[in-house]
Every structure is written in C-alpha cells, then in structure tokens.
Design a protein that fits this description.
Blueprint (H helix, E strand, L loop, with lengths): L1 E3 L2 E3 L4 E6 L8 H4 L3 E7 L8 H9 L10 E6 L5 H20 L12 H21 L6
Antiparallel strand pairs: 1-2, 3-4, 4-5
Helix pairs in contact: 2-3
Length: 138
C-alpha cells in the first residue's frame, strides 16, 4: 500500500516484477532477481481523483506508456526488498507531483517608464554606431 497525502493506493493496483539487476553485487547479480519493475495503471485506477489523474497523464514523462501505465524500474540497491521500497517511494513522489495544480500565469506588461528607458538605450546605441560609420578624413 502506498499513501500520498489523502490518497491511498492498495496493493492490488500495483504490479511488481522482479528481474536481474545490472547494478552492484558481483556474481550475485547474475543469480538473483533483485531489480524491481513496478507498474501502476494511472488511467484506470479508482484510487486517484479525476483532476490528479488528468495532471499525471498530461505530464510529458517517458515512464508513462501510451495506455497510461506508469513503469518504474528500481535497481539501485543490492537487495530486492530495498529496491521494492525505492520503487514505491518514487511512485509516491510521482503522485505527489500531480497533487498540486500549477498556478495560472498572470500576464504582465512593461511599465511606461521601462519602455522609455529601453527606447532611450536604443537611441544611445544607435548614435554610438552611427558615429563609427566611415567618415572621409581628407
């Protein structure tokens, strides 16, 4: 079970697969399936509120498949249990990112003084450059 804020995701919605890891562990890596591939179906999960689901699916994240399934691969640690815990923590962090709605941007305009300062600077630059133009010194 994964808990994030007021959202609880039951074990039945998580699919874990254990595969051989490429990380540390020496010859043990070749024998023991310690890496965890955690799958969570965002699109059909009844645990997620609709606005959170939409925000998570709208994110441009390569870990989310076209069908709306989040696939997390954890192989940082040597033990299966620690990798499982790491994958669940990363799932919680991903869902946490979708909990908060981004604030709407308020478009602003430059003030009159700022426009005047910008144009004055352009005029100064222009006169400097015009002064550099080829003059006949004969």
């Amino acid at each position: 079970m994964v808990e994030v804020g007021n959202i609880t995701i039951p074990e039945s919605e998580l699919v874990e697969r254990f595969v051989r890891s490429a990380g540390p562990g020496g010859q043990n890596v070749n024998k023991v399936a310690t890496a965890v591939e955690l799958r969570f179906d965002i699109a059909t999960s009844p645990s997620l509120p609709e606005p959170v689901r939409e925000r998570l699916l709208a994110r441009r994240d390569r870990r989310v498949t076209g069908e709306g399934v989040l696939v997390l691969s954890a192989q940082r640690f040597r033990t299966q249990e620690r990798n499982r815990q790491d994958a669940r923590e990363r799932l919680a962090a991903f869902i946490e990112a979708g909990l908060h709605a981004p604030r709407k941007r308020v478009p602003t305009k430059p003030s009159r003084g700022a426009k005047e300062r910008r144009l004055a600077g352009k005029r100064e630059r222009s006169t400097i450059k015009q002064g550099r133009s080829g003059r006949d010194w004969d």
